[in-house]
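Worked problem 6 (solution included).
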Amino acid sequence: MSTSPRIAFIASDSPQAEASVAILKKRYPHVDEENADLIVALGGDGFMLQTLHRSISRKVPIFGMNRGTVGFLMNEYSPDGLMERLETADSFTLHPLRMRAFGVDGTVSEHLAVNEVSLLRETRQAAKVRITIDGKVRMDELVCDGVLVATPAGSTAYNLSAHGPILPMGSAMLALTPISAFRPRRWRGALLPQESRVLFTVLESRKRKVSATADFHEVRDIAAVEIEEDRSISMEVLFDPEHNLAERILLEQFIQ
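Solution. The predicted structure is:
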């Protein structure tokens, strides 16, 4: 990183985030987001996801500070010593999942997901999903509310709420986790190599309607979804050394 990066300060629309970004702009030189070579984002994890998606094509490092509710992907907020924090920050490279959703009407939609790709039933009827990994059927029929594939960065989000495993950064794994599985009732999911290609085929798709969501991009009434990590896309996230993303994921596994 340059010793004097051009920094853009951006914030979510919460009063707390807007007040904090105003303080930072008074204390440090800054530029517009489109001219920056480093972004400091103030908000919660949802705002960080939006910022990552918006910055994909520019490959700009992002240093988040928590002014939201959860803030798992964010550093602690402080207006002091920012330049020193940026200089000593640890860098993590994230690769998103690429979702290709095939609608029952024949349409095809593609979206990227930093956290997870999830399928959810749209009606009172349970979904029925066939799971194929790298061209081989691994489960003929999963009866469930839904199913998801999560990255290590997203494993503590929806995946954790669905009782999926926490994946340390650098584990080169993906989590495949059912959501309220009815049959097989005791199936808790699987750990997959990061290069795996996952195909979810929705059985009885016109009767048992299912939607697919890549982070916050939803596609309704799907017949099938293909998911794989897109290694051609890299996103750089910066963390304070004493509390980086790998450490946060490790600590999360010991919370009582």
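Discussion: The chain has five helices and 17 strands.
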